[in-house]
Design brief:
Strand order of the largest sheet: 2-1-6-5-4-3
Shape: globular
Helix content: 10-25%
Order of helices and strands: HHEEHEEEE
Number of domains: 1
Structural class: alpha+beta
Oligomer: single chain
Radius of gyration: 14 Å
Largest sheet: 6 strands, mixed
Number of helices: 3
CATH class: Alpha Beta
CATH architecture: Roll
Length: 125
């Protein structure tokens, strides 16, 4: 396992454990985060504090959440992972999903690295 895979594994472990400090351990201060759904960016954040705030808010949405890495591909300074995502909602959502509903989604995350730090993270569902 190379260092990028270890860093990404640490991020995913932190995500699954609701541990924001572990998630951001290898993030650059100027991290760029994008969430892409149906081919469109629906959330973009710049900076570690903005990402941390969003990650801490998101904890309130789920009783369980788990990303399972199914594949890893390295391309230049980027590493792309495919993930199986599972979550159980902690509250009702405006889109009609209810507390206790289970989510199962397949997606991918693209991590861009500079000097062993993650400078960009793009989640695609």
């Amino acid at each position: 396992m190379n260092s990028r895979e270890q860093i990404i594994g640490n991020y995913v472990e932190g995500y699954n454990q609701f541990d924001v400090d572990k998630m951001v351990l290898h993030f650059a201060e100027n991290i760029l985060f994008e969430n892409v759904s149906n081919g469109e960016i629906n959330l973009a954040l710049t900076g570690l504090s903005a990402f941390r705030e969003q990650a801490e808010r998101a904890i309130a949405y789920f009783t369980v959440r788990r990303q399972t890495i199914t594949s890893i591909k390295h391309i230049g300074n980027q590493t792309e992972i495919d993930v199986d995502y599972y979550a159980v909602l902690k509250a009702d959502f405006p889109n009609g999903l209810k507390k206790g509903d289970e989510l199962r989604v397949q997606g991918k995350s693209v991590f861009t690295f500079l000097n062993e730090k993650i400078i960009k993270l793009t989640d695609v569902a």
